[in-house]
Inverse folding.
């Protein structure tokens, strides 16, 4: 039993990590592809990708996921050849890597869901990888230039094969190899070393970092950095701005003659370098070469990710849900304490009752803080989604031969982790559509006077209790005439009906509706915009489209900030109780039947200058009413994004914090319901899905 | 006076570390110190009285080989037994590790029982 639990926990941990590795691999591969286009490869990036595949192989092997392990093993082989310079990064290789990564992603995913065996796919992918691998190289001349450097056994012994390769590569490029010896206090060595490394990386490559014995090993630690650079000894010493470091020139390939002779003898070096260091308190200005800027860009990156690694804790979202449930139950417990206080006052224990309600107030405040705190933990910046998107966009546009520039805004807007996850697929689909149908080919764009590069702009911002994510492209927009023609052809409208643009755009969300005749690989996967809308509605969100022919389209996704605890309006209708998320309630009106008009057999009311369609819950849910409808009733005006709807209810029962619980897979198909909530008095009620109801009503209207 | 022994695990993979930890926990009452990188191991070493080190090779900042090279050049850590746990398993890799001063070399994937035997043999708890 406990054994089973441990292994279950272990698998979860494996999955969390594997997913992270696969994710990072993906974005780094995309970076690599960009770099391949521009020519110059960054060895650090290539090595990092290799490391990703390498650790996944080890991890999957340990946990017995042989599929994942085997595929990542083969990817690792290919990446190893790349990073050791045995093969070049051709277009074909990149494609194989992308393909393998895609398969790897789905393999990791199927560990979770338990998919069928994929042996054939893996074999096919491995075969492709093998075609890229270099034929076994002829033995290199045994006389290695490394011998020339006279590296101590201790340094040479600790070099990995890759580091050896980097060393040779630096030599082959005619760079000088230096040893930089530094000493730091044990307590702060990592930051100080990072500073030194950053400074060095602006003008060369750090090949290895070897910790070594310092003068006082209780308090200090020394490092020997093997450094390849075209700079001179004096210039490097100047870069350091640190007089405790000693730079030694070790050698340069094929230059035993002039340069080696010009190199000072070791005893001179020590003297020279410390003097230099004293004089060069200002770093020597360097020509900002391309490699230099690239290197510094990367240092920044790694420094950042290293920081976040040590400052963040990875928590299973399930644990947060549990916490949230407990908070929810505490809130309920608090309500019952307040109720007891009121009862006591009514029954004459007023002194005690006052004390009790005072304590309850204090408890309430702290509970609110706790709730807010737990809620904040669940929030993650939308930017995490952007990374994934940018990878997909680059991949698809490359495949389609379209040029697309990406612009992101509002990456720090925060959203519930679960919403971010659920929104990623629909967003991906919208983006695929934008590239596939929206952005024109470079030739076409030039011919109509647009920049040859299309732009996709993804922006997010908070708007009240909602977060809005917009995906905007500057392509050719949606052809409303074609939408109309298609709708006619499908018999969705009769020819004479005049439809507004908004109504026309709504057809796009109908199942099986596509204006594109030739279904292609990108968006023609059988998933339509109807699925997009449903997925977004599942997290109580809505999607809207704005489009201008020839200018582009904008998809506007409106989402609630969190799903966990919400304030709700409790209503009753035909003897049943429901909850309505307060975020979507605009106002409530007390009306009588005389206020209701009928337009085209639909009930509406006049609300200021607008006509508001009405929805009766009993007919929506096809429930029967045992008593007469009340003469006076309420209309709750609800709205998501720009759409409004009036829900007719018998009574308002009050406001309450509720914890929405999912009804599970089997109830997913029930329209108009987003979950259930516990009211604290042993009653469970249904929570209405406002977005879904609005969509249903609009659809029925047509 | 406690006889509890301390094991330092240096591996950048949290899942790998927790797998090692569960294997060790089954074995007995050891204190475990975790390092997610070579640097973290370097920082922990002077503070903790470590009796055994399990290290990965492929880690960010400095790799396991560099870590061992340092340990073996420093009289304070010279005698701490080191077990390399790595995916790299060629004869050359193993020789390299041992040459630098690693006591044992486990190639991933390995049988946890093998690790348990190794740990017990280096750190047998005397009653």
């Amino acid at each position: 039993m406990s054994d089973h639990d441990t292994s279950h926990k272990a698998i979860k941990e494996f999955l969390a990590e594997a997913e992270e590795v696969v994710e990072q691999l993906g974005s780094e591969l995309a970076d690599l592809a960009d770099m391949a286009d521009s020519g110059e490869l960054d060895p650090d990036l290539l090595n990092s990708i290799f490391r990703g595949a390498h650790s996944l192989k080890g991890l999957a092997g340990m946990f017995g996921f042989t599929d994942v392990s085997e595929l990542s093993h083969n990817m690792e082989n290919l990446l190893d050849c790349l990073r050791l310079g045995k093969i070049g990064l051709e277009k074909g290789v990149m494609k194989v890597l992308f393909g393998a990564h895609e398969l790897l992603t789905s393999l990791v995913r199927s560990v979770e869901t338990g998919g069928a065996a994929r042996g054939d796919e893996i074999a096919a992918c491995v075969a492709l990888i093998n075609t890229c691998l270099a034929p076994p190289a002829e033995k290199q001349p045994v006389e290695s230039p490394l011998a020339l450097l006279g590296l101590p056994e201790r340094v040479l012994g600790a070099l990995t094969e890759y580091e050896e390769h980097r060393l040779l590569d630096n030599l082959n490029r005619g760079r000088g190899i230096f040893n930089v010896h530094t000493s730091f206090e044990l307590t702060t060595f990592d930051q100080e070393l990072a500073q030194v490394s950053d400074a060095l990386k602006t003008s060369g490559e750090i090949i290895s970092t070897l910790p070594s014995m310092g003068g006082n090993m209780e308090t200090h630690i020394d490092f020997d950095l093997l450094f390849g650079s075209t700079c001179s000894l004096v210039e490097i010493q100047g870069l350091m701005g640190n007089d405790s470091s000693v730079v030694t020139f070790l050698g340069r390939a094929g230059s035993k003659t002039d340069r080696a002779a010009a190199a000072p003898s070791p005893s001179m070096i020590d003297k020279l370098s410390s003097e230099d260091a004293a004089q060069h308190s200002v770093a020597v200005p360097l020509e900002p070469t391309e490699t230099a800027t690239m290197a510094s860009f990367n240092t920044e990156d790694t420094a950042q990710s290293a920081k976040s690694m040590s400052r963040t804790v990875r928590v299973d979202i399930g644990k947060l849900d549990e916490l949230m449930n407990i908070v929810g139950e505490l809130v309920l417990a608090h309500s019952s304490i307040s109720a007891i206080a009121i009862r006591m006052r009514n029954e004459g224990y007023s002194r005690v009752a006052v004390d009790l309600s005072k304590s309850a107030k204090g408890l309430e405040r702290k509970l609110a803080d706790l709730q807010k705190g737990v809620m904040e933990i669940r929030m993650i910046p939308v930017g995490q989604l952007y990374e994934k998107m940018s990878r997909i966009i680059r991949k698809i546009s490359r495949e389609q031969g379209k040029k697309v520039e990406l612009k992101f805004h509002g990456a720090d807007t925060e959203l519930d982790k679960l919403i971010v996850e659920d929104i990623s697929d629909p967003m991906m689909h919208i983006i695929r559509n934008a590239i596939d149908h929206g952005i024109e080919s470079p030739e076409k764009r030039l011919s109509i006077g647009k920049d040859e590069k299309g732009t996709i702009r993804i922006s997010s911002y908070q708007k009240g209790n909602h977060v809005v994510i917009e995906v905007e492209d500057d392509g050719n927009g949606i052809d409303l005439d074609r939408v109309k023609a298609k709708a006619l052809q499908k018999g969705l409208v009769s020819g004479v009906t005049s439809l507004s643009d908004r109504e026309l755009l709504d057809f796009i969300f109908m199942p099986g509706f596509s204006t594109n005749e030739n279904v292609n690989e990108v968006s023609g996967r059988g998933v339509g915009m109807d699925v997009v809308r449903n997925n977004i509605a599942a997290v109580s969100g809505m999607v809207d489209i704005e489009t201008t022919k020839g200018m582009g389209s904008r998809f506007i996704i409106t989402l609630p900030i969190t799903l966990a605890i919400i304030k709700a309006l409790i209503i009753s209708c035909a003897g049943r109780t429901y909850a309505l998320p307060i975020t979507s309630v605009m106002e409530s009106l007390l009306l009588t039947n005389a206020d209701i008009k009928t337009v085209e057999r639909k009930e509406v009311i006049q609300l200021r200058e607008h006509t508001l369609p009405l929805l009766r819950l009993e007919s929506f849910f096809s429930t029967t009413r045992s008593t007469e409808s009340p003469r006076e009733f309420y209309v709750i005006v609800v709205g998501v994004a720009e759409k409004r709807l009036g829900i007719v209810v018998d009574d308002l029962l009050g406001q309450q914090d509720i914890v929405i619980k999912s009804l599970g897979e089997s109830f997913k198909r029930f329209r108009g319901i987003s979950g259930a909530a516990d009211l604290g008095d042993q009653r469970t009620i249904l929570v209405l899905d406002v977005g879904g109801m609005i969509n249903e009503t609009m659809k029925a209207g047509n | 006076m406690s006889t509890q022994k301390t094991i330092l695990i240096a591996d950048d993979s949290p899942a790998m570390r927790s797998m090692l930890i569960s294997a060790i926990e089954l074995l007995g009452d050891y204190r475990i110190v975790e390092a997610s990188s070579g640097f973290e191991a370097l920082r922990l070493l002077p503070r903790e009285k470590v009796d055994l080190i399990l290290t990965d090779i492929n880690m960010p900042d400095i790799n396991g080989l560099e870590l061992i090279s340092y340990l073996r050049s420093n009289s304070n850590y010279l005698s701490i037994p080191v077990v390399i746990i790595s995916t790299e398993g060629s004869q050359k890799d193993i020789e390299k590790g041992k040459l630098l001063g690693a006591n044992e070399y486990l190639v991933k994937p390995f049988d946890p029982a093998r690790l348990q035997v190794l740990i017990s043999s280096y750190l047998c708890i005397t009653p």
